[in-house]
Each structure stands twice: as C-alpha cells, then as structure tokens.
Write a structure and sequence with these properties.
247 residues; alpha+beta; Glucose Permease (Domain IIA); 8-stranded antiparallel beta sheet; 3-stranded mixed beta sheet; 4 helices; 33% strand; metalloendopeptidase activity
Amino acid sequence: AEVIARDFAGNESKSHVRYFYENVKYKTSTIALNDRFLDGKIVDLTDQYAKDPNALSRLEKMKFVNETLRNSNEEKITALTSNVDTDITNGFNIIPFYPLRNGKKVADFADHRFYTYNNEQVSESWHMGIDFASVASAPIIASNAGRVVLASENGIYGLNIVIDHGFGLYSLYGHCSSAKVKEGDMVAAGDQIGTTGTSGLALGDHLHFGILVQGEEVRPQQWMDKKWIKDNVTSVLDAAKAMIDKN
C-alpha cells in the first residue's frame, strides 16, 4: 500500500507501507423465507421506496429490498462517511465503543446470507455490522464525541444515526425506534443518541452497529477493543504528532 501526505502548499511525500491479510472465517447462513415475512416487512419497504411496487412479484419485491434498496442505502452511507473532517482531527481521542449496555451479540460482521423460498435461492447479502439485542427500546449511547451527520430514515437501516468522530472515523446505528439527536448536533461521549427498535428490515428489536473508516465498512469488534485501538490507532497518531512537534 502507498500513503501520500500533502500539505496546504501542495508539497507531497509518498511512503510504502507493508500490510498482510488476516485469514478471518466469516459466517455463512441460509435463511428460509416465509409468507409472513414477504407479505410484511418486504411489502412495507417496497411500498415505501419502489417506484411501481404493484409491478413487482413477491420475490421481485424481496430482491428489490435486499439488493437494490440495500445498495442505494449503502451508497448514501458511503457518500456521507467518505469525508475527513479536519475540524475534528486535532482533538482525536478514541476510546472503545460500547453502544448498548448489556447488549448480547445476535449477528456478526460480514455474515454472508443466502435467502431461499421453497428451497430455491432468491437473494443474498452481506451483513456489514454487528447486531446487539437487549430490552425493547434500550438506550443507545455514543461512546465517543462527534458530529451527527445522519439522523433519518434510510431504507433497510430504518431510522439511521451516523456520527463523525474525526479522522474519517464514523459510527453507525440502525433500526432505531427514536432519535434523541438531529443532523448537525455535536454529541459528547456518554450521550444517549436514540433507542433500539425494529425500523427498516428488522424483525426483532435490536441495534445494528457499524464502524466506517473513510467510507469503508470495517470490523466493529476492533474498535471495541482497547488494546487494538492503542496498538493500531492512538500510539501511531501519538508517534506522528511527536515527530511533527520535533521538527
């Protein structure tokens, strides 16, 4: 990989960085669709977002929601989270994320899901976050300070909150039943930003939690790990700041 540094005068420096792949095995699931699901959530989302929902068959509606709508929602998130906010950069200080008190993990990052109906595959998707469940309408907490860049309905994500923490780091909260913040708000670490729910493509009350770095979905588990953050983020930034101050 190559890292390029450029100052405001246009001076540029390049450095090659060695990297390696982690051999992580992600879960693969086969989910059998039933009529209740197809005639419930899928119809609701299709009616809300499709241009001509009546022209779609039941299985076409499933593909629309799980693929077309999902891609559109993810493109919106990518656009929002690709910005590196220099106003927040200077005070960057991250602690492990812990968005839901006593939350139990019910789905993991990068699960590859195959959806079948009458034993035939009709759609597939990747789950780009971690699902946590607690009690209904449980408080969702902002573990780190930042600026709210999204607090509105976003298709399969339902009521969707996204926070910019600076340096291109964003946290995402999906399927909320309520939002305690609005776009543009500055939140402090420990603030309640919303409550869990079943909005969007969610069957049971839970929180979909995601982390993005400059528009790319990354493993949230790493950003919930104090040692990983120290070894891979804060110690690197501290060393860089020391070098800059020295010069």
